[in-house]
Design brief:
The protein is an alpha/beta fold and 255 residues long. The protein has helices at residues 42-49, 72-78, 94-99, 114-126, 142-156, 172-184, 199-205, 223-226, 229-236, and strands at 4-10, 22-26, 31-35, 57-62, 65-66, 79-82, 160-164, 191-195, 208-212, 218-222, 240-245, 248-253. The chain has one domain (4-253): 3-Layer(aba) Sandwich (Rossmann fold). The strands form three sheets. It has a six-stranded mixed beta sheet, with helices on both faces. The protein has a four-stranded antiparallel beta sheet with strand order 2-1-4-5, with no helix packed on it. Strand 9 and strand 10 form a beta hairpin. It binds adenosine-5'-triphosphate. InterPro entries: AAA+_ATPase, ABC_transporter-like_ATP-bd, ABC_transporter-like_CS, P-loop_NTPase.
Length: 255
């Protein structure tokens, strides 16, 4: 059981007032969506929750321990990260890259074994990129790279996924398949926090939402309480029409 908490957390967005401090507890089995317009601080929040960026105020806790006091290797066994910026280091194949997901569990001199390989192959299969296993990552399309990033975290099997726009670059089918995969993590008491631009994916798949406003204001809670058209219109500065499809609200921008 792993719990990620933000206590009195103010993310450090340069030049912005503190706004509302975040008090959030991500419990095992929950799927959190972070919504907000460009520049609201979604990526900054995710980096702060991952311990990669210091907050301006407050602290992030993993299972009650301050994240900043934990060893990165310990953190890497619990938190899986899908971020937007990726840099190709040395040339690596798709399979080698997926195997990186097992590194937090191996000692520095230990080679990946049959079990690591099995997990990586299963993840590549799940993300429909098994046929690309021998290819160099530098030759992949944007959507294939995105699916590899997800496959790498699936290989890692962390307790908590932190994903920045996980459906970026993905076609409609793979967007849905990715959201299903993330929601599926909850069956094993894992949790997911993801930034999303697509309100309808958030409405369909997230059970908790955090709305981040550009002035630092924020509100959060169960998804149904957050999906209030007036609040969402204020969030995006966009009028919306609402319908219901398959039991979930659907929001369409109106002129
Ligand atoms: N190093 C920096 N120096 C100055 N401003 C920065 C720096 N890093 C981020 N910012 C600013 O902080 C704000 C929040 O950025 P962030 O990337 O977290 O937003 P976001 O909500 O993820 O946006 P988007 O939807 O466009 O991805 C932006 O206005 C950005 O320009």
């Amino acid at each position: 059981m792993r719990r990620l908490e933000a206590r009195e957390l103010v993310i450090d967005v340069p030049g912005r007032p503190a706004g509302r401090a975040l008090d959030i507890c991500v419990e095992p089995g929950q799927v959190w969506g972070v919504l907000g317009p460009n520049g609201a601080g979604k990526t900054t929040l995710l980096h702060t929750l991952a311990g990669l960026r210091a907050p301006r105020l407050g602290e992030v806790y993993l299972d009650g321990h301050p994240l900043a006091a934990l060893k990165r290797r310990q953190v890497a066994r619990q938190l899986g990260l899908i971020f937007q910026e990726r840099h190709d280091g040395f040339p690596a194949t798709v399979r080698e890259t997926a195997l990186i997901g097992r590194h937090p569990y191996l000692s520095p001199w230990q080679m990946e074994g049959a079990e690591e390989l099995r997990l990586a192959e299963a993840a590549l299969e799940r993300l429909d990129i098994a046929h690309l296993a021998e290819r160099l990552v530098s030759t992949l399309s944007g959507g294939e790279r995105q699916r590899l990033a997800i496959a790498t975290v699936l290989t890692q099997a962390p307790a908590i996924w932190l994903a920045d726009e996980p459906t970026n670059h993905l076609d409609l089918h793979h967007q849905t398949a990715t959201m299903a995969l993330l929601a599926e993590q909850t069956a094993e008491e894992r949790a997911v926090v993801m930034c999303l631009h697509d309100l309808n994916l958030a409405a369909r798949w997230c059970d908790h939402l955090l709305l981040l406003y550009p002035d630092g204001e924020a509100c959060w809670g169960p998804a149904e309480a957050m999906l209030v058209p007036e609040a969402l219109e204020r969030l995006y500065g966009q009028r919306l029409a609402t319908a219901r499809v398959n039991g979930a609200p659907v929001f369409v921008p109106v002129r």
